Structure to design on (416 residues):
């Protein structure tokens, strides 16, 4: 974490700990009074706190669920039913864990869209963005393995379909698939491997999140106008200004999670997953969780398995290149009228991909998914570079203070 000057504390216990391990001053430098933050951050910058809360909820509920879950093909489904019916507050743990994953992904996608709108990935924050995309990839792997664990009908066939994709890799694909399965088909060894990794990967996400925060504090967070702080008038201490602001967003997130858990716990689930896994009966339409639907639609948009895998991997890998695909020197879309137009088309395109991902891959839905997939890649490979070259951005403000406070620039100059 970013270092800060040693601070003297009145409490003797804190002073004793601080002398031996300066953890309190490190917290001050990270989210406290020693962390100068642009004064114009809006509520979209609060999603990081929601993400941290969601990760803690997932780890805490997951640990307790793991105490009662049995990773065996013959007993996994029944152990989940045991958690729901016999374990004290087991239903609460499971519903919080399942819906907490949706909260986690919703916050991540909004967090990424905010970064794309305000150009938060641009220099010098490229590595910050790349670490964030790595977190997304690990999250997707973790969520997929967690989805398989209840060993319902949809879980089983989702595992069969997705792991089968590795067999499309030339020469080594079949070996990788057999190694993942632990045999010649999805069965108990597969479940045990997924369970082990599902338990391990959240701690990797926690470590990556700390690296993300570390990289964030090197140059500080971006802001809605996309220019750097130029004086003390452009910043305020993180605490109490943003800690209090972010608490309100956390409160809203908890209300939404509580509504899902207590009133609509299965709203985001699929009915077929309440049936035990049956290797002899394929569901009419295999549908993943909602947060995978856009990528699933891209995967199915071509009839060739290897081609689908390449497009699927490319749809995520292209996010790593975003800092270099966007050629504009202006960060924030507030000053980029043309890019702003294409940004909202891109958002609509992703929503369309999510919709067709839940439909059978046939007829008009298949045609729409192909068109939407083509636009998804065109946005990154064609639109972003060309818009950056030919767009005429609006003039940037002289400082962060000027758009926020009337006469802020003059005050900043006077303060200097």
């Amino acid at each position: 974490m970013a270092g800060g000057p040693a601070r003297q504390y009145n409490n003797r216990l804190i002073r004793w700990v601080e002398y031996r391990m300066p953890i309190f001053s490190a917290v001050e430098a990270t989210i406290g009074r020693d962390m100068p933050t642009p004064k114009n951050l809006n509520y979209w910058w609060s999603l990081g706190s929601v993400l941290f809360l969601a990760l803690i909820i997932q780890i805490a509920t997951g640990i307790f669920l793991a105490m009662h879950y049995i990773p065996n093909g013959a007993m996994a489904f029944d152990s989940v039913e045991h958690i729901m019916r016999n374990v004290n507050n087991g239903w609460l743990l499971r519903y919080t864990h399942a819906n907490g994953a949706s909260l986690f992904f919703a916050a991540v996608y909004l967090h990424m869209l905010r970064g794309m709108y305000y150009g938060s990935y641009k220099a010098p924050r490229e590595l910050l963005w790349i670490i964030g995309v790595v977190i997304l990839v690990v999250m997707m792997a973790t969520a997929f393995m967690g989805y398989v664990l209840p060993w319902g009908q949809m879980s089983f066939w989702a595992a069969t379909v997705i792991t089968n994709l590795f067999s499309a890799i030339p020469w080594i694909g079949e070996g990788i698939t057999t190694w993942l399965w632990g045999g010649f088909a999805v069965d108990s060894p597969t479940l045990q491997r997924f369970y082990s990794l599902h338990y391990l990967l959240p701690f990797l996400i926690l470590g990556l999140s700390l690296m993300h925060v570390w990289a964030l504090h090197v140059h500080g967070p971006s802001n809605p106008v996309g220019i750097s702080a130029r004086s003390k008038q452009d910043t305020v201490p993180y605490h109490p200004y943003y800690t209090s602001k972010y608490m309100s967003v956390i409160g809203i997130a908890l209300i939404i999670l509580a509504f899902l858990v207590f009133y609509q716990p299965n709203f985001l689930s699929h009915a077929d997953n309440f049936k035990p896994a049956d290797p002899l009966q394929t569901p009419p339409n295999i549908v993943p969780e909602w947060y995978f639907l856009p990528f699933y639609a891209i995967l199915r948009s071509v009839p060739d398995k290897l081609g689908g895998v390449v497009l699927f991997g490319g749809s995520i890998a292209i996010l790593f290149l975003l800092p270099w695909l966007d050629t504009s020197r202006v960060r924030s879309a507030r000053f980029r009228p043309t890019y702003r137009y294409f940004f909202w088309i891109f958002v609509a395109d992703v929503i369309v991909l999510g919709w067709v991902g839940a439909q059978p891959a046939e007829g008009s839905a298949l045609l729409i998914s192909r068109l939407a997939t083509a636009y998804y890649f065109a946005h990154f490979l064609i639109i972003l570079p060309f818009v950056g070259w030919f767009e005429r951005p609006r003039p940037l403000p002289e400082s962060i203070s000027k758009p926020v406070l009337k006469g802020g620039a003059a005050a900043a100059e006077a303060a200097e």
About this structure: Residues 37 and 235 are 5 Å apart (CA to CA). The radius of gyration is 24 Å. The chain has 17 helices and two strands.
